[in-house]
């Protein structure tokens, strides 16, 4: 009897845990801009830590960005996604939804030859 009751309660709790909606995003938008940076521009990131390289999935943002050091952001364009970590600030990024990506992160969204991509969908991961 006790085992059956315990199992029933356990199954109910597991069902609730999987059925409960989870918060997938905060601070999102659909008009972001991305560019990319590399080489010496990645030296001494403003957020501290080691210098990233072109293969790291990282980004720099403007100082007025709603996103801050250490935030994990997912960017999407035409069904392609890149999840990056904010590690630096971008002096040339002129508004809050501008992301300067590492080359590998940029290539997940489109060709490097594009140089700039607009109308990016983005959200902060919790």
Break the fold down into its secondary structure elements and pairings.
Elements lengths: L1 H18 L6 E11 L21 E4 L10 E6 L2 E10 L8 E4 L1 H7 L7 E8 L2
Parallel strand pairs: 1-5, 2-4
Antiparallel strand pairs: 1-6, 2-5, 3-4, 3-6
Keywords: Signal
Organism: Malassezia psittaci
Protein name: RlpA-like protein double-psi beta-barrel domain-containing protein
- Can you give the mean pLDDT? 83
User: Which fold name is given in CATH as the topology?
Assistant: Barwin-like endoglucanases
Low-confidence stretches: 10-25
| Element order: H for helix, E for strand | HEEEEEHE
How would you sum up the global shape?
globular
Helix content: 10-25%
CATH class: Mainly Beta
Q: Give the number of DSSP strands.
A: 6
- Tally the structural domains: 1
CATH level-four homologous superfamily name: RlpA-like domain
- Give the neighbour order of strands across the main sheet: 1-5-2-4-3-6
Distance between the termini: 41 Å
CATH architecture: Beta Barrel
Percent of residues in beta strands? Answer: 25-35%
Largest sheet: 6 strands, mixed, barrel
Given helix and strand content, the structural type is alpha/beta
Task: Tell me the Rg in angstroms.
Answer: 19 Å
Number of helices: 2
Signal peptide: 1-19
Organism: Malassezia psittaci
InterPro entries: Expansin_CellWall, RlpA-like_sf
Keywords: Signal
Q: What would you say this structure looks like, in words?
A:
It is a single chain. This protein has 126 residues and is α/β, with parallel strands linked by helices. It has one domain: RlpA-like domain (Barwin-like endoglucanases, Beta Barrel), CATH 2.40.40.10. Helix content is 20%, strand content 34%. It is built from two helices and six strands; from the N terminus they run αβββββαβ. The protein has helices spanning 2-19, 103-109, and strands at residues 26-36, 58-61, 72-77, 80-89, 98-101, 117-124. Strands 1-5-2-4-3-6 form a six-stranded mixed barrel. A hairpin with a 2-residue loop joins strand 3 (72-77) and strand 4 (80-89). The longest helix is centred in the first third of the chain and has 18 residues, at 2-19. It is globular. The N and C termini lie far apart (41 Å).
């Amino acid at each position: 009897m006790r085992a059956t009751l315990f199992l029933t309660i356990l199954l109910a709790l597991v069902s609730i845990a999987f059925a409960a909606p989870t918060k997938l995003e905060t601070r999102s938008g659909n008009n972001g801009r991305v560019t990319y940076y590399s080489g010496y521009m990645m030296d001494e990131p403003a957020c501290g830590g080691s210098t990233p390289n072109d293969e790291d999935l990282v980004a720099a943002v403007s100082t007025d960005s709603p996103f801050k050091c250490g935030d994990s952001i997912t960017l999407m364009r035409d069904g392609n996604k890149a999840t990056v970590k904010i590690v630096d600030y971008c002096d040339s990024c002129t508004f809050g939804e501008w992301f300067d990506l590492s080359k590998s992160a940029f290539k997940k969204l489109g060709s490097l030859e594009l140089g700039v991509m607009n109308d990016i969908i983005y959200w902060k991961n919790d």
